[in-house]
């Protein structure tokens, strides 16, 4: 599986309706549902863990791993599920989801409840950096998941997660800074933030937010041997985000293409692991 393949089959909800798949996929399907602070993503993998469908959309139904609009979240997941089912010609019956490290178990269960209320058995829940590493397959280093509201860090040693942490600061903070600097509503600032043609212009304004992210990373990895950092999450795609973290920490830092897809794809892969366990 490649993230580039996934990007071709996971669409914005407001894109034109894509045609159904040429062939109905056979075998087990694996689904990841990511209730992010800013975006909701549903990713579907086939029995060979190849991405076949999915979509994502802007939605503020969760905040820092906590479901703040339960009914809205259920409605959105239901509608995304129905559209994807129509496209692939199969019912989606099971799914996995995730949460930022450190979220209370009661709130973690609320995420599973959303998935199940939308019509899918939630077989497994996984912390977001661990899910991301299922895709990245890092052996030694740190996964930094910059979400909408928080930055999650997982330290990997010999392919295993040995430490996780999560702190406030993420994409929502970038949007708030842009809104203040430009004196525009939050929704307009969000659209401006994701416009790649404007990010170079906005970079001096939001650089301090990425420096805060970098300071969080530096503090959390202190005392560990971290030869490299991989940044995931949609906010990581912002112009020069990786450069700021590399400069601040002194550690080589890399952002994969389409980093917003890494964690939900890892959740779907974790669903397979959960079903096998």
SS-based structural class?
Answer: alpha/beta
Give the N-terminus to C-terminus distance in angstroms.
Answer: 22 Å
CATH superfamily of the largest domain: ATPase, nucleotide binding domain
State the helix count.
9
**Which parts are unreliable, with pLDDT below 50 for 5 consecutive residues or more?**
none
DSSP helix fraction: 40-55%
The fraction of residues in strands falls at: 25-35%
Gross geometry = globular
| Overall strand count | 13
Number of separate structural domains: 2
Q: C-alpha Rg, in Å?
A: 18 Å
Q: How confident is the prediction overall: mean pLDDT?
A: 90
Name a few traits of the molecule.
Nucleotidyltransferase, domain 5, 277 residues, 6-stranded mixed β-sheet, 2 domains, alpha/beta, globular, 13 strands, 9 helices
Task: Summarize the structure in words.
- There is one protein chain.
- With 277 residues, this protein is α/β, with parallel strands linked by helices.
- It folds into two domains: 3-126 and 260-276, ATPase, nucleotide binding domain (Nucleotidyltransferase, domain 5, 2-Layer Sandwich); 132-257, Nucleotidyltransferase, domain 5.
- 42% of the residues lie in helices and 25% in strands.
- It contains nine helices and 13 strands.
- The strands form three sheets. The protein has a six-stranded mixed β-sheet with strand order 1-4-3-2-7-8.
- β7, α3 and β8 form a beta-alpha-beta unit.
- α4 crosses α9 (262-276), α5 crosses α6 (186-193) and α5 (171-182) packs antiparallel against α7 (199-221).
- The longest helix is centred in the last third of the chain and has 23 residues, at 199-221.
- It is globular.
- It starts with a helix and ends with a helix.
- The model has no long low-confidence stretch (mean pLDDT 90).
């Amino acid at each position: 599986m490649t993230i580039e393949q996934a990007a071709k089959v996971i669409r914005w909800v407001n894109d034109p309706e894509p045609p159904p798949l040429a062939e109905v996929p056979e075998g087990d399907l694996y689904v990841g549902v990511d209730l992010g602070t800013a975006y909701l993503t549903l990713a579907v993998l086939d029995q060979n863990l190849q991405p076949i469908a999915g979509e994502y959309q802007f939605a503020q139904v969760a905040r820092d791993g906590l479901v703040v609009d339960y009914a809205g979240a259920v409605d959105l997941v239901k509608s995304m599920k129905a559209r994807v089912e129509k496209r692939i010609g199969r019912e989606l019956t099971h799914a996995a989801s995730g949460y930022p490290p450190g979220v209370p178990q009661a709130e973690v269960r609320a995420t599973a409840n959303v998935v199940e209320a939308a019509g899918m058995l939630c077989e497994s829940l996984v912390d977001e950096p661990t899910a991301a590493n299922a895709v990245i397959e890092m052996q030694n280093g740190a996964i930094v998941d910059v979400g909408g509201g928080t930055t999650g860090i997982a330290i990997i040693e010999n392919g295993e997660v040995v430490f996780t942490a999560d702190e406030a600061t993420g994409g929502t903070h970038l949007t708030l800074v842009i809104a203040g600097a430009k004196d525009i509503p939050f929704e307009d600032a969000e659209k401006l933030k994701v416009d790649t043609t404007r990010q170079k212009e906005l970079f001096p304004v939001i650089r301090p937010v990425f420096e805060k992210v970098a300071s969080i990373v530096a503090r959390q990895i202190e005392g560990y041997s971290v030869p490299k950092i991989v940044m995931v999450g949609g906010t990581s795609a912002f112009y020069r985000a990786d450069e700021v973290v590399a400069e601040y920490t002194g550690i080589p830092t890399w952002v994969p293409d389409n980093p917003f897809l890494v964690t939900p794809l890892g959740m779907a892969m974790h669903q397979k692991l959960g079903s096998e366990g």
